[in-house]
Structures are given as structure tokens and as C-alpha cells.
Amino acid sequence: MAYDKPWKSYQEQLELLSDRGLIVTDQDTALLYLERIGYYRLSGYLYSFKERSGVCCPLVDCNGKKYKKGNTDRIVQENFKIGASFHNAIELYVFDKKLRLLVLDALERIEIALRVDISHLLGKKDTFAYLRPELFFKDFSQEYDNKTGLTKHHHWLDKQASLIARSKEDFIKHNKAKYGYPLPIWVACEIWDFGTLSALFSGMTEIDQDTIANKYSLNNGRIFASWLRSLNYLRNVCAHHSRLWNRNIVDQPKLPNIGAPHWVTPFLDNSHRLARPFLLLCIIKHLLTAINPNSTWNERVKQHLLEFPDLQHLGLNLASMGAPEDWEQRW
Length: 331
Hints:
331 residues; mainly alpha; two-stranded antiparallel ribbon; 15 helices; globular
């Protein structure tokens, strides 16, 4: 499909929103926000304000993708719900921005702790453990891709080499100058990003995965690996300043059925809650409690959630981000 939407001035963008039923009480302020945030980014928050059709059986979705025969859905309309305002969208945008900053703060602590966990465990086996395929799970280190002829371990080593080559850190320069390559795992780990450590953890043996998972009161390292993949996805969303509050989590974490923490129950067999970010906030809370029981992060997040904008007239609340009705008591 050829793209046929024309360029519009900020004034024209605001007029379009008004024509579709969005209440704008202060045009000058609204124009300023459009200039600083952008129509397209703001439209992600306005999307939840739009009218929906009744339940129907559409042939294609808004992207032109065909629905499976018999599937039902509600089609998003162009007009906004009655009472939706530009101010509501800004309130939601600011709430989401603060939420992302809280999440990034927590993920930094988790990332640093996991670097130590992984490098300390593997470093005890070998100073350069990351180079030894036999120390990892066979699927990770011994199964070759038919197209590339490489293992997941090869791809991981290539990623780490790239991170080391790009690093400007003095400790990397010092170790390279004094000792050369390879770098000890407890040095190399300091340049891993969340995706790198998550990928390496997924390739570790089940015994090693369980050992680290047990430190976080979880008895299954494979489930813990899924948590790290989901948190890496979350980290990328936040780092790129993308909408978070009601995002559909593509890489969903697995949850234990046996020996599960008390907070897991409301999410089991609930597809909506499993696909929303509140579950990931609970996972972060669980991990931070193990890393630093005295952290105030839990209280700060709870207070922020209690300040969710009043959007009841639009049918929006914390349930939209996957929070159970009694989340406040469970938190």
C-alpha cells in the first residue's frame, strides 16, 4: 500500500484531533506539547481513548493482516470517546515517563547483580569460562545453525567481542594493554548489556541456572531464564522511551506452578495479565527484594501507581496494565 498521508502543521494536527472529538481546552499549551512530544508518539497514548465498534468478525485488521475465520474483535474507530481530552493524554504520558524511569532504575541494579552472579559462578570453573563450550548447555554450544554454520555460543562471542571493541572504559584498556586477550570473565562481564547476560544465562547448564535462580527464591533456572528475556525486552522498551503502561509484552515470562511466590496466583491462566507490564513489575520487585531488602523501590512504585490519572470516564485504570483488583494489598 502506498503511503498517502500528507504532512500537517502542528495547528492542522491539533485541528484533526479536535475534529475527531478530543477536547482541547488550552490550544497554546496543546500546540507546545505537539511540538515537543510529537503527534505520532502522543497518538500511542490517545489510541486507548478511541471509540470501539461492537463485537464483529472483521476480515482484516488495521495493518491489513487477515483474521482467522471465525475470530471476533472490536474495530478501533477514528473518533474519540466522549469526555476524552488532550490533558488526559498528557497526564498519561507523564505517568508513563515516570514509570519507565522507575523501571530503568531497578533494572540497572538487577543487571549489575546478575553480572556478578554469572561471572562469579563460571569464573570459579575457569578464568575464561565463556570460551569453553563444554561448560554450557549443548543446544547453546554444540548445535550448529544450518544456514550460518555457527552455534548460539559463536553468536554470543561475536556480540561480546563487539562490546569489548567499542568499549572506552579504562579498565578494559588496562587489561588489554597489560595482559592482552582474552579478558577474564569477571572483567569482561562489566561491559555486558542486559541482552548479553540474558543470552549467556540461557546457555548455561541447568545445574548452574538453578544455582543462580535459587539465590532469588526460585527453584527453576529455565523459568528464571524466561524472566531475564522478558526483562531484557522491558529494558529495551524503556531505553527507547516507548509507551510502557499498557504495552502488550511480546516476550512473556513463564511462571512456576510448584513452589510459586504468593504474588504469582492472580496471573496464572489469565492471558490479559500475562501479557501486560504489571507482571514484570512484580518480577522486578521479587528480584530486588533478594538483591537489596532495604530498597525503597517497592514503595516508590506503589506510590506512583496510586497516582495513576483519573481516566475512569474512558474505561481506563490499572487493570489495563494487568494489575489485579487487590494489587495494593498483594504488593
